[in-house]
Automatic annotation (TrEMBL), chain B:
InterPro entries in alphabetical order: FAD/NAD-bd_sf, FAD/NAD-binding_dom, Metab_Enz_Cyan_OpOx_G3PDH
Residue ranges that the Swiss-Prot or TrEMBL entry lists as coiled coil: none
Keyword Membrane: no
Highest taxon in the source lineage: Bacteria
Keyword set, alphabetical order: Oxidoreductase
Keyword Oxidoreductase carried by entry: yes
Annotated protein name in UniProt: FAD-dependent pyridine nucleotide-disulfide oxidoreductase
GO molecular function: oxidoreductase activity
Residue ranges annotated for the FAD/NAD(P)-binding domain, each copy included: 5-298
SUPFAM superfamilies: FAD/NAD(P)-binding domain
Length: 490, 425
């Protein structure tokens, strides 16, 4: 019997798993997808928000500011790149300038510090590519950048090192409440008996809550589309540039990534289908228009890819983080939309407190490992370090992804690490192989070959992103026989 | 630190021809660096024939064409490092490369020839809406899977773009028993060589839909189909013409981009139109002693022209190594009406090698018949009638040294005038 089953391996579920892995309890994390960070955590703005935007008094506001403060140490501990580059909210007309004052007030109430408004000259000196009409901006130096899937993967790896079991490709099909603090969580991979269930199922949290007979709420997917530009334009802006926000969204940003690209997006459209991560022509138009409002000369010819993500918006419009009053032992962590990424470390601490209040005895492990296994990023190293690495392991001398300079050793490591990669996209998220300007054109056959070798699999079994997404459909000549062609044809 | 007289980066057709030519003309200490496990570059996966008509007066397959050069390279003894990737190049010709056998290598060269080739444009570059499932491949990646690895990336295929690799793969997939449903080309004319349209599409009854594009990719895990639509004369899709075509694979053959990451590291000047370095009459870039040839300079449609250009770069590098002569006054070469680009972009007329100069260029649109004018600021140098002009088929013109030298001209302009049409030029 497990103490805890966590449902959902996004940044929320993995943060909770990693936090709880400090204690002497048995935890299993179940995830419907083939890898961690496959939902909202994979496709968002990747900004660690300062916290001026959320309505004072909400969980969003409290946990945002608290989470923001936890980031530097957490990322340091887990060796996850994090950059506190600051955020700017830009006003282009008088009305927006007034709105900045409101935002400043809100930010101060939320406890964001430092926070100030800067004038035109200072703004344009900071960001020379900005729209010349930009008049003023709210400057929040504590805004930062993180790679959301890299953080989620790091949390999962470290949780796994500390004993958390991961069941991937395991969608929860039913939750049987066997009594107070006693559940049977059912998945196609098997059933798990547990005392507590933590529902961190993102877009599907409403369905999971209903399954257990806990409080009912709804999660609406709110789509945001993005375009990413080639790294050669990585210096277009230095800070995350926000427009003056509207009621439902922080607006379309022009923003660097921690890995050195620039993106524009997201727009914000409520949809029905929780699996609809398609990008639409109208959406692309919308984000280009929005992006140009901030930075008129966007290098549109150097877009390397587009994607869409879905925010998990609850009907309360705030995070829902509470022990169920209806079902003892069931804890909802739902409606984690923006600033969910920023809040995740604080949410994990809050969930720990909820568990303790519910009576779970949390004793610290003596042998907790705070760091994940050393990860090498060949592209970031100097010549001497590179030379030494290749001497130790010659696979570091074999560059597989030329755009991002990813070596064979890094790809093998990504497969062998805790909660290791099992697909082309999982390798990509762990190493950046295939994320550059050629988008895997060169490296994907080579990554497929390494996966085949490492997993002892047939190339036909290797997928892009889990079941049903096989890269290859057959051997050559196979289809000729299928169709009863000339069998004597040599 | 290793020192070399001449380092060539890239062992495809350009690097092979340049290395051999340099050796034949007196370069002694040459190193050829190739990141793959064998020489020949992308030719090794081009198992169809049609290579070598100009250079060998024969029709060879890609591997056969490459093999002739590889054998010659071995015979004349040129040092080669395989499985070795150059990761840094500086303006003073210092190179850092890595390999699993030799570790990290630091090399100082007297001269360098860049022959890194090109890469394929991707879906992101053309922004096709829809999902991001498995089953979207660039034509070259699919070609590698089929011809090198022996696997089929798909069974029911739609091809976007009529570039030559896409056309070749349409035939290849058909011969392997897959169904190629159509080739959609956004332009009102095809983007491949005429012979490929005939031999790869028409001979197999594969429809070529001109003025069509893919407007949506369907399928969450694997491609389930695409929506295609006709485009108007501004290339915008016409919604009422949209139709769904089921398929498990979308192949992209939407253009090639010279691969100049190393050139940019060395601060080499890049031509915005070609995407490759600006070069002079001996294929030297803006950095003295660094040369470039083949698809890294501009995308060719025939490997034979790559070979010709690369031999010139090989001789150019030797010419530099022998006397290091500074380049003299340059004639600036520019494209005029209906010419998209001309290579080389600069000519030092007094120092043209071997008494003649080749110019490669592309038209901006197809024309049945046109007159090519080559003019300096002093007037017409030569005019020539050309037939069946297509942007996809490179125009190659040779000028004699005496047509350019000793005339003190500063500019050279190439322009096309369609015959029978007065466009006011």
């Amino acid at each position: 019997m497990e103490d805890i089953v966590i449902i959902g391996a996004g940044v929320t579920g993995c943060s909770i798993a990693r936090e709880l892995s400090r204690y002497d309890i048995n935890i299993t994390l179940v995830e419907k997808e083939e890898d961690v960070a496959c939902g909202t955590s994979k496709a968002n703005s990747a900004v660690v928000h300062a916290g001026f935007d959320a309505t004072p008094g909400t969980w969003k506001a409290k946990l945002n500011v608290a989470g923001n403060k936890l980031y530097p140490a957490l990322c340091e501990e887990l060796d996850v790149p994090f950059k506190m580059n600051g955020s700017l909210v830009v006003a282009v007309n008088e009305e927006e300038v007034n709105a900045l004052d409101e935002l400043l007030k809100k930010g101060k109430m939320n406890g964001v510090n430092p926070l100030r408004i800067i004038g035109k000259d200072e703004l344009h000196a900071l960001e020379p590519n900005l729209n010349p009409d930009a008049r003023a901006a709210l400057d929040a130096p504590t805004g930062g950048l993180v790679c959301p899937y890299e953080l989620t993967i790091a949390l999962a790896e470290n949780a796994n090192q500390n004993g958390v079991k991961f069941w991937l490709n395991a969608p929860v099909t039913d939750i049987e409440v066997m009594g107070d603090y006693c559940f049977l969580v059912k998945t196609p991979k098997g059933n798990i008996k547990t005392k507590y269930v933590i529902n961190a199922a993102g877009l599907f949290a409403d369905e999971i809550s209903k399954m257990a007979g806990a409080e009912e709420y709804t999660i609406t997917p709110r789509k945001g589309e993005y375009l990413i530009f080639d790294k050669q334009f990585g210096n277009m802006v230095k800070k995350a540039i926000f427009p003056t926000p509207t009621k439902i969204s922080k607006g379309i940003l022009v923003c660097p990534t921690v890995d050195g690209n620039i993106f524009i997006g997201p727009n914000s459209n409520d949809i029905e289908d929780k699996y609809d991560t398609s990008v639409n022509a109208a959406g692309i138009e919308e984000i280009i228009t929005g992006g140009r409002k901030l930075v008129p000369n966007l290098p549109l010819k150097n877009v390397i890819t587009s994607f869409a993500g879905l925010r998990a918006v609850s009907n309360t419009n705030d995070f829902i983080i509470e022990a169920s009053k209806l079902v003892k032992g069931f804890i909802n962590v739902g409606g984690i939309q923006s600033p969910g990424l920023t809040s995740a470390p604080a949410i994990a601490l809050m969930v720990k407190d909820i568990l303790q209040d519910a009576g779970l005895d949390l004793k610290k492990k003596k042998d907790f490992i705070p760091h994940r296994p050393k990860k090498y990023r060949f592209r970031e190293l100097g010549s001497e370090e590179r030379r030494k690495l290749i001497e130790q392991n010659s696979a570091f001398g074999h560059v597989i992804c030329r755009c991002e300079t990813v070596t064979e050793a890094e790809i093998i490591d990504a497969i062998r690490r805790p909660v290791g990669a099992r697909s082309i996209d999982a390798v990509k998220r762990r190493t950046r192989a295939g994320m550059g300007r050629c988008q895997g054109g060169f490296c994907s056959p080579r990554v497929l070959e390494i996966l085949t070798k490492e997993l002892g699999a047939d190339p036909l079994e290797i997928t892009k992103k889990g079941p049903g997404s096989n890269m290859l459909v057959g051997r050559i000549k196979e289809f000729l026989q299928d169709e009863g062609g000339d069998q004597n044809d040599n | 630190m290793i020192t070399k007289e001449l380092v060539i980066i890239g062992g495809g057709p350009a690097g092979l021809a340049a290395a051999i030519e340099a050796k034949k003309h007196g370069a002694k200490d040459i190193l050829l660096i190739e990141r793959d496990s064998g020489l020949g570059g992308i030719l090794q996966q081009c198992i169809h024939n049609g290579f070598g008509l100009h250079v060998f007066k024969e029709e060879l397959t890609g591997p056969e064409y490459a093999d002739r050069f590889i054998k010659e390279l071995e015979e004349i003894g040129i040092e080669v490092l395989l499985d070795t990737m150059v990761i840094d190049l500086t303006e003073d010709k210092q190179i850092i490369a890595v390999s699993h056998k030799k570790g990290l290598l630091q090399i100082k060269a007297d001269a360098v020839i860049l022959t890194m080739g090109c890469r394929e444009r991707t879906r992101g570059a053309i922004n096709i809406p829809g999902y991001r499932p498995a089953g979207i491949f660039t034509a070259g990646t699919a070609q590698r899977f089929v011809n090198i690895e022996g696997y089929m990336p798909g069974k029911e295929i739609v091809i976007l773009g009529s570039g030559d690799i896409g056309l070749i793969m349409a035939r290849r997939f058909t011969l392997e028993g897959a169904k190629v449903k159509c080739v959609a080309e956004i332009m009102p004319y095809s983007n491949g060589l005429t012979r490929n349209i005939v031999q790869c599409l028409e001979d197999f009854d594969i429809p070529l839909l001109l003025s069509h594009t893919v407007t949506y990719i369907h399928g969450r895990n694997r491609v389930e189909g695409v929506t295609i639509a006709q485009v108007d004369d501004k290339l915008n899709p016409i919604p009422s013409t949209e139709k769904f075509i089921s398929c498990d694979t979308l192949l992209l053959s939407v253009g090639l981009i010279p691969e100049n990451e190393l050139s940019k590291m060395a601060d080499i000047q890049i031509d915005n139109v070609t995407g490759g370095p600006v070069v002079n009459q001996r294929m030297e870039t803006s950095v003295p002693g660094i040369f470039a040839c083949g698809n890294v300079v501009h995308v060719h449609d025939l490997v034979d022209f790559v070979t010709m250009e690369s031999r010139l770069a090989g001789r150019g590098a030797v010419n530099y190594l022998k006397n290091k002569m500074p380049q003299q006054k340059f004639i600036k070469v520019s494209p005029g009406s209906d010419i998209r680009y001309v290579v080389p972009q600069l000519i030092d007329a007094e120092n043209i090698l071997d008494e003649k100069q080749n110019f490669f260029m592309r038209s901006t649109r197809p024309m049945e018949k046109a007159r090519l004018f080559i003019e300096s600021e002093d007037g017409l140098i030569r005019a020539k009638v050309l037939q069946h002009i297509k942007p996809s088929e490179m125009i190659n013109i040779e000028l004699k040294k005496e047509e350019l030298a000793n005339k003190d001209i500063k500019t050279l302009k190439f322009s096309l005038q369609e015959e029978g049409v007065d466009n006011g030029n």
